[in-house]
Design goal:
By secondary structure, the chain is of the alpha+beta class. It contains six helices and seven strands, in the order αβαααβαβββββα. Helix content is 36%, strand content 23%.
């Protein structure tokens, strides 16, 4: 698990929003899905998000990813997200608390890690879709491959900008 104290020492800190009011009267903390929605909204409205490359902003779920499970959330009292640049967003589960963005003091470009295969090997995959019991789902392997290709494109663009 990520050490919040170490993050605070090694990163710049800025407040990008608030966890807001209770989702219903009498609640003592926000449900994980409600908090996640509020964090995503605050993140998309932040200067940080506006400073991302167009390719980074259009990366879907890769832009902001949860790092802990719902079970851990209830035990430790906060949600922690990681951005596509390796920075962190910290959100406590209590009402009217700040949503904090931890940004690296010195941005270190990290080449994205390729998935185990760059070709889908799922036998039930049909053009990035899996049919199951009359429903259709996106193929996780295909999503991993496309996320990697997007991240690699951003990485290469950032490398070109730094030269």
């Amino acid at each position: 698990m990520t050490n919040i104290t170490a993050l605070a020492k090694s990163h710049n800190i800025s407040i990008i929003g608030s966890t807001g009011e209770p989702s219903f009267k009498g609640s003592s903390y926000l449900h994980a899905s409600t908090l996640r929605d509020r964090v995503i909204s605050a993140f998309f409205d932040s200067e940080y998000f506006n400073g991302l490359l167009h390719e980074e902003r259009t990366m879907g779920s890769y832009v902001l990813t949860g790092t802990i499970s719902n079970t851990e959330y209830y035990d430790i009292g906060y949600q922690l997200f990681i951005t596509c640049r390796g920075d962190y967003v910290f959100a406590p589960k209590h009402h009217n608390m700040p949503i904090i963005l931890y940004t690296q003091k010195e941005y270190n470009l990290i080449k994205p890690q390729a998935p185990s295969s760059l070709q889908c090997t799922e036998p039930s995959c049909d053009h990035a879709t899996i049919a199951h019991n009359g429903s259709y789902y996106p193929c996780g392997t295909c999503l991993d491959i496309s996320d990697y290709k997007r991240a690699l494109k951003v990485y290469n663009k950032r490398i070109a900008q730094s030269v």
